[in-house]
Design goal:
The protein is mostly helical. 95% of the residues lie in helices and 0% in strands. The chain starts with a helix and ends with a helix.
Length: 191
C-alpha cells in the first residue's frame, strides 16, 4: 500500500508544479496587459493635458482680441458722438464743413457696427474654446483615474505572483477592468 502512495504523491506534486507554472504565466500575462493599459492611459492623459492647455491659451488670446475690438468699437462710438455733437452745436458754419463732418460721423457709425460684430464673434469663439478646454480637462481627469486604477492593479497582480495566491490576481483584474472602463470613457469624453 505504501508503494501506491509514492506514485500518487509524485503525480500530485507534478500537477501542482504544472498548475503553478500556468498560474505564473497567467500572472505575467495579466501584469503585461495591465501595464500596457496604464501606459496607454498615461499617453492619452498627457495628450489631453496638452490639448486642454492649448485650448485654454487660444481662449485667452481670442478673448484679448475681442477686448481690443470692443475698445476699438468704443473709440469709434466716441468719435461718432463727437462728430454728431459738432453738428448739433452748429460748429461747422459752411455747408461743405457740415457735409464733411456728417460723412465722417456716418463712416464712424458704420465702421463701429462692423467692429462690434467682430468683437462679439471673437467673444463667442473665446467662450467656445473655454468650454472645449473644460471638456478636454474633464477627459484628462477621467483618463488619470483610469490610469491610476491600472497602476494599482499592476501592484496587486505583482503581489499575487509573490504571495502565490489568486485573490490578488482577481482583485487586480477587477481594478484593471474598472481602469479600462474609465480609459474608454475618458478617451471618448472629449470627442
Amino acid at each position: 500500500m505504501s508503494e501506491n502512495i509514492y506514485p500518487k504523491f509524485n503525480e500530485a506534486n507534478e500537477r501542482v508544479e504544472h498548475l503553478s507554472g500556468g498560474s505564473r504565466k497567467l500572472v505575467s500575462l495579466a501584469a503585461a496587459i495591465i501595464a500596457v493599459l496604464a501606459a496607454l492611459g498615461t499617453l492619452f492623459s498627457h495628450h489631453r493635458s496638452i490639448s486642454a492647455l492649448t485650448a485654454k491659451n487660444v481662449a485667452i488670446l481670442t478673448q484679448a482680441r475681442a477686448s481690443d475690438r470692443y475698445a476699438s468699437y468704443e473709440a469709434k462710438q466716441v468719435r461718432y458722438n463727437v462728430f454728431t455733437a459738432f453738428l448739433a452745436a452748429g460748429l461747422p458754419k459752411a455747408q461743405t464743413g457740415k457735409d464733411i463732418v456728417k460723412k465722417l460721423a456716418d463712416r464712424e457709425q458704420a465702421s463701429s457696427l462692423t467692429t462690434f460684430a467682430d468683437a462679439e464673434r471673437l467673444d463667442k469663439a473665446a467662450r467656445d474654446k473655454e468650454e472645449q478646454s473644460e471638456l478636454i480637462l474633464r477627459s484628462y481627469e477621467t483618463l488619470e483615474i483610469g490610469t491610476t486604477f491600472c497602476e494599482i492593479a499592476i501592484v496587486l497582480v505583482s503581489i499575487s505572483a509573490l504571495a502565490s495566491t489568486r485573490i490578488f490576481l482577481s482583485i487586480g483584474s477587477g481594478l484593471a477592468a474598472f481602469g479600462l472602463a474609465f480609459l474608454i470613457y475618458g478617451y471618448f469624453q472629449a470627442h
